[in-house]
Amino acid sequence: MDRSTFDRLFDMSDRTVIVTGGTRGIGLALAQGYVLAGARVVVASRKAEACEQAAAHLRELGGEAIGVPTHLGEVDDLGALVERTVAEFGGVDVVVNNAANALAQPLGQMTADGLTKSFEVNLRGPVFLVQAALPHLRASEHAAVLNMVSVGAFVFAPMLAIYASMKAALMSFTRSMAAELAHDGIRVNALAPGPVDTDMMRKNPQEAIDGMVGATLMRRLASADEMVGPALLLTSDAGSYLTGQVIIVDGGGTPR
After folding, report:
1. Which part of the chain is the Ketoreductase domain (predicted)?
2. Which is the catalytic residue, given 123, 163, 188, 194?
3. Which one of 136, 144, 153, 234 is least enclosed by Cβ atoms within 10 Å?
């Protein structure tokens, strides 16, 4: 390896990245990381104002960015997101499926609507967004998909049946996508964060947060920024021989 090859390992210049749920938390941290790595970034979330604020922030960092209001539960929105991205930046190189619905309902109190809503956002949306972007990913020389799952796909806990099952299903889709799309030069991987200090996390009771922290070897919440390095590894040339994998970033909790 020479210096120029080394310097390009994590370089995302001239690549277009879609980040769903990209206006706050882990999604915004990832969007910032991609912009700083040189990518053109499209942030998508339900609220138009939040999309524009996030895109403006990314442009202040020196990057090219737009926000596209998108409801992951609406299939028509997914095609529109891809079309807007291509119209603005000419293609799609990376799709980051980060948007999620953290609905928690205990067994005995689950509703059909709740299960359907979780399915639409946590599983159907990511799958159909990849499908909508597929022609453009196939045309890219650096195509990658990153599905944000969760340690909930590996561990079990009260109240998490709906969310964890959808994340486990998305992990399964990650492996199937990797197998089906490898011949197109498209890599597909997943990232499974443990407890991260986000708005979503802070909505939990403190005792629940303390329990999650206590289950890690590092005895702390991650910052959202700590997901950027692993995400870049999985979607940049640094991870060129990685596909069908799930990286667990959880402070050393899940393997035990």
Report:
1. 15-194
2. 163
3. 136
Task: Characterise 167 by phi-psi region: left (phi > 0), alpha (psi -120 to 50), beta (else).
Answer: alpha
Domain that holds residue 39: 9-248
Q: How many domains does the chain have?
A: 1
* 163 carries an active-site annotation: yes
**Band (196; pLDDT cuts 50, 70, 90):** very high
E strand intervals along 9-86:
16-20, 40-45, 65-69
168 is a domain residue: yes
**Quick check: 255 pLDDT over 80?**
no
Helix (H, G, I), strand (E, B) or coil at 167: helix
Q: For position 38, which CATH number holds?
A: 3.40.50.720
Residue 1 maps to a domain: no
